[in-house]
Amino acid sequence: MKQFRKTTFAGSAQALACATFLSGTAVLGAATGAVAQGTTEITIWFGRENFIPADAFDTFHAENPGIEVTTDVIPLEQAVADTLRAARADRAPDIVQVPADGLAPLVAQNAVRDISGLLDEWRSEDAASLDDISTVGLDMASLDGTPYGLTLYAGPFWYTYRKDWLEAAGLDVPQTWDDVLDVARAIKDEGHIGYAVIGSRAHDPVWFLSTFMAMGGQFEGGVPQIESDAGRYLLGFYQTLVAEGLTSQDVLAWDSGAMRSSFIGGNAAQAMLGDNIYPTLNETLTWGEEWDGARPPARPGAEDAARTMTLGWPFLVTTGAAEDDAIRKVLQYLARPENVGEVSARYQPGTVLSVFESEEYNTVKPWASQFAPEFANLTPLPTHPRQSQIYQILLDAMQAALQNPEQDAAEIAATHQAAIDQLVAD
């Protein structure tokens, strides 16, 4: 039996919380409380409780007495499967938050709907607020040019380094991945881990793909092309880390926690860290003095192809959702700078550009303005209906490189590209 917390917010009344016990992992129930006649009920599944604004829809309900919002927290890891299961039972929520790479499977199963008309109405009513959302906020919730929702929170990985160590060694901030290796070699000689990297299968290979895209890696129809200059360079980079002892000897067991801890704990000089980790990092090390961050470096000779990848957690509108007018009002509420700013300050960064200019946000995250230009130019991680299987093959390729540093990187790339191509062709 699995326990979920369901919270219903009605008007400006106090939030009511109730525990609901459900069998299996599917969450098929929408709100069960009585709804006043003539009231439109909107059910939202948030992927994390932290994504729910602190205002908890109080302001929304005061302004929209004819709409009642009900929320559940359905973990991102199961949101796609639960939405598909709920849709088959005709009990899907109106809006669901999922990882961006879960969009394609939902579209393939006709579980989400085109909101082009909703966005047109929004633009005619308040173009400024829609334009305040970065391009990636729209792109990451779209597939083949069709919008299915909005991405209000996105999480890029930044190249993060020990500024004090580089300065003490007389090293410049790396501009290319070759430079990263040179810094790692110099830092290794000082007794530290040169570059912290995840080598286990504990997570989807999103750090691996972020580095791939920074190196100019391309996708075709959502399929990563690792049998390419970028793919071979990436696999060779991982091989070099192991061959020269520039990363942990236990890299194959390292998950994100181990990678982050090595940097935050003062053992590693460089890592790709999520923007949301920076506040925790800054509690231990001082930004601007001991550590700093930048967009990921480029592959030598491929600077023009470098892209900064971001994950995202879009709010998607399901096929059987309520009418556009009510859905639009809910999305507009969620996108308000005060709501996005509040969530961003304590959790994941948002895609509402004006938030980066606010004094409150920059007080909490003093590095935010430094990254504002990069946030306006993030690239969504491409998606494919068979994403989960592709990820397993990419993990195979990553670990093959780490376990076989002497093997030809081109051979590893070709073997695993063939496996991916066969998978998507079936």
TrEMBL record:
Pfam families: SBP_bac_1. One of its GO terms (cellular component) is periplasmic space. The keyword ATP-binding does not apply. Residues 1-30 form the signal peptide. Its main location: periplasm. The keyword DNA-binding does not apply. It is found in: Periplasm. Keywords: Signal. Belongs to the bacterial solute-binding protein 1 family. This is Extracellular solute-binding protein.
